[in-house]
Write a structure and sequence with these properties.
The chain crosses the membrane at residues 21-41, 53-71. Keywords: Membrane, Transmembrane, Transmembrane helix. The structure is a single chain. By secondary structure, the chain is an alpha+beta fold. It has helices spanning 25-44, 51-78, 117-122, 146-165, and strands at residues 13-17, 81-85, 88-93, 99-104, 108-114, 124-131, 137-144. 42% of the residues lie in helices and 26% in strands. The strands form two sheets. It has a four-stranded antiparallel sheet. Strand 2 and strand 3 form a beta hairpin.
Length: 175
């Protein structure tokens, strides 16, 4: 998805991320269980006058379970974006009802992360960004490469503050 319409003049996207792929493991497993079970049950329906009705019923139940157990999670993953620009952190999620939050990098006070042992092995985790604004904390779950994202976000926030304090005349690395 293009975020050009969200950006200000001379604002550049540094990172454009979805939640980590681990969020799709359980939905894929659900898919891999429901399809064969529904196929087996459909094939095992005994012949008779109610055969078609039972098969349709099995297919409908399987379709509902697939939607609840797989499709909605895939849609949630596909429509969740964590975008870091050189000026702000942008979050967007939702398909029909969209929600979003923008946090200027100059307002960031603290950036921390946490991850479990499994998340550490997979290279993801939770990023907590605290701002000076009244809404305070922004919690980003299942961020891929969470340590790299934290480091990059800190660098960009530091650069944004230096540019603001210098009036945008030069980068802090040039001083």
């Amino acid at each position: 998805m293009s975020y050009a319409r969200l950006l200000s003049d001379d604002e550049h996207v540094e990172l454009d991320l979805h939640p980590h792929w681990k969020t799709l493991v359980v939905p894929v497993l659900v898919l891999l269980v429901i399809v064969p079970v529904a196929s087996y049950l459909t094939a095992r329906v005994p012949e008779g006058t109610s055969q078609t009705g039972l098969r349709v019923g099995i297919i409908v139940v399987a379709a509902i379970l697939l939607f609840l157990g797989t499709l909605r999670h895939v849609i949630r993953w596909a429509t969740t974006h964590y975008i870091v620009t050189d000026r702000r952190l942008i979050t967007r999620h939702g398909l029909i009802a969209r929600n979003g939050r923008d946090m200027p990098l100059t307002r960031i006070n603290d950036i921390s992360f946490s991850h479990t042992v499994i998340e550490r092995v997979l290279g993801c985790g939770t990023l907590v960004v605290e701002s000076a604004g009244e809404r305070g904390q922004l919690l980003l779950r299942d961020v891929p490469g969470v340590e790299m994202v934290q480091r990059r976000l800190y660098e960009l926030a530091d650069d944004a503050l230096a540019a603001r304090d210098d009036g945008g005349l030069h980068d802090r690395h040039d001083a």
